[in-house]
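Components:
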Amino acid sequence: MTKLRLYNTLSRAKEDFAPLDPARVRMYVCGPTVYDFAHIGNARPVIVFDVLFRLLRHLYGPAHVVYVRNVTDIDDKINARAAEIARGRNIDVETARAEITEATARQYAEDVSALGCLAPTHAPRATDYVGGMVAMIERLIAEGFAYAAEGHVLFEVAKKADYGKLAHRSVDEMIAGARVDVAPYKKSAMDFVLWKPSDDNTPGWPSPWGRGRPGWHIECSAMGEALLGETFDIHGGGIDLVFPHHENEVAQSESAHRGHALARVWLHNGFLNVEGEKMSKSLGNFVTINALLKDWPGEVLRFNMLRTHYRQPMDWTVAGMNESWKTLERWYAGSEPIADPHVGAEFLAALCDDLNTPQAIAELHKADDRARAGGLGLLGFSSVQERIAARPAIDAAAIADAIAARNAARKARDFREADRIRDELLAKGIALMDGPGGTSWDVKR
Ligand code: AMP
Ligand code: ZN
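Structure:
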């Protein structure tokens, strides 16, 4: 069997992967906070960890891999949105919270399925695990790792000697670098919230510390524990989650579990920028998966994402998307839909080398059969093939005639007619490029 090697954020090294129990390989990936459409940056971990899920299923058997991707449906950004809706429609805030999280989670599942991602084995919602969160917090208090103060419960970072081991930072560095809340009920600025009180206009659950809600980090610790046990094999998410989210998950879970590790391998995808800039609503380059799917086949999005290694930062560009579409078209042109379950040895070796998808794609370039990635479902889930089949064939001779007519019009200085011909072609998706060697054309999207 090809050996799987994964880069572990914890050890900062590529390691041989050996699951605790090969009959039940367990992976947890932090999922979306559901209050708005997911953006293309959010799509990156979904696609990357789908590739890992498929690879694990290939190596250990589909029945032997358990993949948990949670849905964060308790969160203060959600609450702020819910309060707005509740005011506008004169409904109570909990009803509004349930509505937006339900609708957003459904949309998310649809969007990522269009990117060819398998549904995870479990997609737990935080609201269904509040009991487990309260129980874990009670345990942390009983063991001396947490304290209650003014309706809050805080994790006492000073009680965890190796705090910072995942992020590879000392507590002093973290205090200097982080914008931490200095609240009067905290013993130290680094202590983080496990539970906080809710007022009447904020969703809340009963607890020994009064009506309130969990902090984000404890949500994942409790859902991981409930579905995967104390220690599991892989924990993943975007690089931005290493600190504080994952560091705090480690602190909570290890302290609640007599020091047993939360996860053995920590995997983090690099960040995605759009056209060279950090994505932000104010810059106007905030691209949702949903909007992209109106213009591009999901498979093109997926392929474009996988052309960059998951740990590298990625620049998402329209030019890159066009290249990706062209490559897939070339691969699929005139071929039967991919159905061959064969997985090439070099292709598999590349994926097993810390999910080296650029190398795996290079192997696909070399392959001259059309089986390519069929067996792993990396590609070939057919939306591109369907779109190619649906598109009328390009009549190259007619385009050549139109270019000749346009050149004749330009020679006669009839620029209006020349532009009309150019625009007519453009409306059909054919772009003309005038260069020193004459006029060439390309399919534009
Ligand atoms: P959130 O809903 O913001 O908690 O994010 C969900 C997932 O998307 C997390 O794993 C994040 O690390 C990841 N993520 C968010 N923004 C980006 C980005 N620009 N590039 C890559 N991953 C991202
Ligand atoms: Zn998490």
